[in-house]
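With this grant's support, we have settled on a layout for protein records. One resulting record is reproduced below.
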Amino acid sequence: MNNLPLSGTRLGNFLVEQNLPVAELNLTAIRLKHEPTGARMLHLACDDPNNVFAVGFRTPPPDSTGVAHILEHTVLCGSEKYPVRDPFFAMIKRSLNTFMNAMTAADWTLYPVASMNRKDYYNLMGIYLDATFFPTLREQDFLQEGHRLDFADENDPDSLMIKGVVFNEMKGAMADPSSLLGRRLNAALFPTTCYGKNSGGEPLVIPELSWEELRAFHKSYYHPSNSWFFTYGNLPLEEHLQQIEELALSHFKQQDVASEIPLETRLTAPIQSTQTFPVGPDDELQQRSMVQMAWLTCPIEDTFERAATGILANLLLGNPAAPLYQALIESGLGRNLSPGTGYHDDYRDTYLSAGLQGTDPERMAEVEALILDTLQKVEKSGFPQERIDAALHQYDFANREVTGDQYPYGLGLMMRLFGPWLHANDPFSSLMINQNLEKLKTETADPQFFPRMIRRHLLDNPHRVTLLLRPDTEHAQREEQAFADHLKNIRESLDEAKIADIKAKNLALKESQETPDDTSCLPILELADIEREEQKIPYKKQTDPICDTFWFAQPTNGITTLVMQFDTSALAPALRPYLPIFCALLPQVGAAGHDYLAMSRRISAATGGVRFGTNLLESPLDLDSMRPVVELKGKCLDRNQATLCEILTDILTAPDFNDIERLRTVIGQIRASMENSIPGAGHSFAARAAAASLTPTASLREEWSGMTQVQTIQQASTLDDAGLTELAQTFKEIAACLFVSNQATVAVTAEESAQQSIEKPFAGLLATLPERTTEGSQATTTFSAQPGVTGWHHNLPVAYVSRVFRTVPYTHPDAPALMVLAKLLRADFLHREIREKGGAYGGMAGYNADGGLFSMLSYRDPHLERTLDVYEEAIEWACKGGFSDEMIKESILTAFAELDRPLSPGSRGYREFIHQQQGVNHDMLQNFRNGILAVKQEQLAHVAQTYLKQALPSSSVGVLAGEEMFNKAQVRLKQMDMQMKRLGSP
């Protein structure tokens, strides 16, 4: 990194335009331009071995056919150099990638990959370069991924239907009220630019897109002159440039690409819009609506104004003590802030939005008036300096924290800078934390700074939209009728020749899907490329008469993370279902004489967040043994360690549940949040429902985070004052039972110097907790595993179908083979049958080695019965054991890509802490690793036969779907003795 090229240097055809050290992030940013084509390039050089590559294109959609989204899927279905049917999914199993995906936003399409293996990194870069610039874009791939006509009964031309992966994905997405709210808000807020279009595709409009239009869109926008390249990590820049030049850019010349997005034409007066979302005929309509207000603010290139508006949004809405947040929630007009509330600064025009969900249509005017009235009051009074300081602290913390658990840290940095880079050629402003912070501190010292912004961007801004999204029992019927009319019109235009053509194309597609793909042209890693030794995470264990503390030294960029686990075995069984609500409430209620507003201000001013949650520590030796705990996680900048410990002391020793209205408010928020999560995580809810009857851990997991917990929260949200007073007493009993020093175990992750400075304040915290001798009650009931078939009704146009098997604990010799089998089944059977042929968004298999559960799942699936049949076919296929050596090698690689996924510094310490708490030692981890590397064909067939085929009668099924799908499968489900459940009923 000391030899990075300076500004003005030429590296082949690339000109270095800027070299910028970013000390606060420990990296150097190099901005380049490819002179022959105009391609833009940014490299962030740092010591991180998790290298990232991405190529992005500005792709403003001309309509709502989903052309950019369908193209994103289709370019990954084969290219000139790699003419295989599905190189993307093939490479997932041929690499050790730490991230591999593609994503379509409202105005760009991005193809990012990451790997810690140098050979793998360049393999993946080559695949993506060929896919994006030289795709085959076959009509068959368009029909599979986008949309196609088919016949439900090939002998009945009147059974015409629409299929397609994106079509079904968007049917699921657009039935989700949260997703729908954002799409409909954009349509109202951006009437003249591409943001008003649905880049993912409106299900009713997707069938209008032709294959020729898809190809034309690629030709227009997937050109180097309209490309943005990004690399990050410790691999040399020169080698990146050489690969990009040779594999892609050298084949092109510069051309004009009209992809610039104009500023939105400003409204001259505020507007209102009313839209609907689908609910079932028997669903409750009260308190289901959403009201959202939004204002266009500043263009993205106004860097300082954008940063300041983000701070303003935090001041108004960032925590329960923020004035607009407080006014909305305490008004009683709705249950929670509406999804998408906050500042959005990645479009060409930025915007701020605020609103309520869980309201009613007739309250729309009240919500609107409340928001405007609150803004006027805040404009007059301004913000206290300590609130401004707290918002600036949050900005500093969020930008300084090294993340990387869900996405590689480098990709997170790219997402932060991509919008300004795309629209204002400014990739750097978002990285300059200290510079931005200093200017913000200087400017915001003026007490009128934010009031002027409120007046300018909000109160005097006519470009304002108020959107009402209300439930409508006839919405789905109207859409289905529109589809029926569309299909009827097409049917009337079909003669025998066209019918034959549809059948021929579908037959050809099916044959293509069933023909084994020759993937020999694709690069692949060898098993020798896998790290043989399990990585050790160093730590120090401090054994104390009161509790054990684990110390993890990690490069956290000046952030301390504190984790405390409290054993729940002494908790009375009647209290157990309320633990998740208790945990969610703790940081959001008063404590030690401070009301909830004061606590919220303290948490915001000095920490990066305080969270409580439940966790289940599974035994590596026994599926029927586990330890449930309540877990506290707090993090702060090192300088705020003492304050963090003071805050935690108050929460743990004196939580205040006496404010009944506050309990009602927060429980309503929890309910809204959990209900919102169902459509996007339906496969997880279905799998938890299935697994609940198989192990005690899975039973408790369903009770704490499955549909049963949704029911518990819904019931709690309807309690009257007397019921809430009783519930408050329950929470007090839980706190008194749990927060005992000798039931705690602690982990601290920080840099060495920061570990020393937290010792004294943390010892003070521990000293305030009572010490109590308690006798565990965990052996009160004996769990008996038994099969279960559970169906949950939810208002969805697609299904989530799961079948789950109880297998063996982590240390059993067959556990590694089960993990490999899950990867093999997903890649070589379920993906083809459920996604490619069935049209679901995803067909998956998974093995939870900690919990000993093997699952098969589908995501946004247009089928139910067929998918259950596919699972049985998958088992038969696996039992035959006809796996090639290459298939096994690919599955082993995929297993290690999951096992060795890099974590953020804070999470590295946390994972090792969890292992220690479970009793998982390094030898167990190494044996599991060795077992995966040693898996052979016979062992895979053996575990398929033993734990899947023979155990099929004792496996469980879970389905989350809508009424119509259950009705179609009712005969089959009745034969299976499915227990039907519905939210709101016992």
